[in-house]
Automatic annotation (TrEMBL):
This is LacI family transcriptional regulator. GO terms for molecular function: DNA-binding transcription factor activity; transcription cis-regulatory region binding. It comes from the Bacteria. Residues 19-73 form the HTH lacI-type domain. Pfam families: LacI, Peripla_BP_3.
Length: 347
């Protein structure tokens, strides 16, 4: 069935701006039947035709209607959520907050994992829109142009919540990663530390890491401290990476007096390595973290960190999305839920 055909077999006029299968066919220079076959049963067309159709789908922003022949003109009561990693427990509170609010309003949550890849996020968004979700919640705030075009073309409301971006697609509920990293770096400087190192996750695929690096540099500039590139590391996630970062910094010829780990697991790995080697914290080196998972308060010493309102971010993200879906709000929304520095004995 072509996507312009209703469940009764009668063709409907296309809504303004809606991309149809025939637009894909025109771009790929094949018939609509060939497009339908390539999308539903790719093995029945040649590799060249499949490639042309896939490229055309991306170029025009086409989203196949997976509900065609059913209630294709209606939205579901499902919200699509894309997070960078299902494995990372830091997202659990946000997911719980979203789910709690949606359940109270007879909506359900469907979750996809992008693996920190903008291309994978785009694929998840396409799949969600094909299922006619009522709205989208995206943790990331940087997206492929094709993903943004699909969302805008669909008219589906979207809330982003990974950081307080100044240019949201629609609505944003979060805190500023830039401000949080700047505040922690200034906190360390005010405690008297002068060689403050920063360890983040790789920034090439993580806008939040880039924001944290920029906030760190801004704080150093504000207090007149040099930004020594030897004191900045990017590490993959994990306890072992935190331990490795600690050793590389302390043995690299430009030893810091404090290390700000912009990731809790990295910070825990560093503290455990200090314990293993008998290095006192903060006498050998001060250690600060970025989030406030429970273990940080129970290490010896307990670790200075930032408390982030992850549960509230989830709740408010769902609330603003439901307000838009149910017609209570039409304007763009930007909500800053801030953060709190928790000072402990590690600094």
């Amino acid at each position: 069935m072509d996507d312009a055909t209703g469940p009764d077999g009668q063709r409907r006029p296309a809504a303004p701006g809606v991309v149809r299968m025939r637009d894909v066919a025109r771009t790929a220079q094949v018939s609509t039947m060939t497009v339908s076959r390539a999308l539903k049963d790719p093995g029945k067309v040649s590799a060249d035709v499949r490639r042309r159709v896939e490229e055309a789908v991306r170029a025009v922003g086409y989203v196949p209607n997976k509900l065609a022949g059913s209630l294709s003109s209606r939205r579901s009561n499902v919200i699509g959520l894309v997070v960078p990693s299902i494995e990372n427990s830091l997202f659990a509170s946000t997911v719980q907050g979203i789910s709690d609010v949606l359940r109270q309003h007879d909506h359900q949550l469907m979750i996809a994992d992008s693996g920190y890849s903008a291309v994978a996020e785009e694929a998840a968004i396409r799949a969600f829109l094909g299922q006619r979700v009522a709205g989208l919640i995206l943790h990331d705030t940087t997206h492929t142009p094709e993903a943004v075009a699909m969302i805008r073309q669909s008219g589906v409301p979207v809330a982003e919540n990974g950081t307080l971006t100044p240019t949201p697609i629609d609505m944003v509920v979060s805190y500023s990663n830039f401000d949080a990293a700047k505040a922690m770096t200034l906190h360390l400087a005010r405690l008297g530390y002068r060689r403050i190192a920063l360890v983040t996750l790789p920034a090439s695929t993580n806008a939040r890491s880039r924001d944290r690096q920029e906030g760190y540099r801004a704080a150093l500039a504000e207090v007149g401290l040099p930004a020594d590139p030897r004191l900045m590391l990017e590490m993959p996630p994990g306890l072992a990476s935190g331990a490795e970062a600690l050793l590389r910094l302390l043995e690299g010829g430009a030893a810091p007096d404090a290390i700000f780990f912009a990731g809790d697991v990295l910070a825990i790995g560093a503290v455990l390595e200090c314990i293993r080697r008998g290095w006192p914290v903060p006498e050998k080196v001060a250690i600060a973290a970025f989030d406030n998972i429970d273990l940080l308060a129970h290490l010896v010493p307990p670790v200075t960190t930032l408390r982030l309102p992850r549960l509230e971010i989830g709740r408010r993200s769902a609330e603003v999305l439901l307000d838009r879906i149910q017609g209570r709000s039409t304007s763009r929304v930007s909500i800053d839920l801030r953060f709190e520095i928790i000072h402990r004995a590690s600094t």
